[in-house]
Specification:
five-stranded antiparallel β-sheet; 93 residues; mainly beta
């Protein structure tokens, strides 16, 4: 079953996709309204580190990890231009 989060507000510092632990077996993050590039990754992301969402509509997909629910949305971060937004969908099994 596909789930979604409310749009994530991006800031100039690394922000977790979720404030609470949510386990998923796949995750997709899409630029909902980006005025500049955003980066997605672990807590070490920066303006020069992490997967790039170059513009609105760009997406990063974390592929299915079997039934293990290996991705924790509280440990996936995004950084970019303050007040931009990203959409997040994910699946749990």
């Amino acid at each position: 079953m596909v789930h979604s989060l409310p749009d994530v507000t991006i800031s100039a510092t690394a922000t977790a996709l979720s404030a609470t632990s949510i386990k998923a077996n796949w995750v997709q993050i899409q630029g909902q309204s980006l005025s500049g590039a955003a980066r997605v990754g672990d807590s070490q992301i920066s303006t020069v580190r992490g997967a790039i969402l170059g513009s609105t509509g760009d997406a990063q997909f974390f592929p299915a990890a079997g039934n293990s629910n290996a991705y924790d949305l509280s440990t996936i971060y995004i950084i970019g231009t303050a007040s931009d937004k990203a959409a997040v969908i994910y699946n749990v099994t």
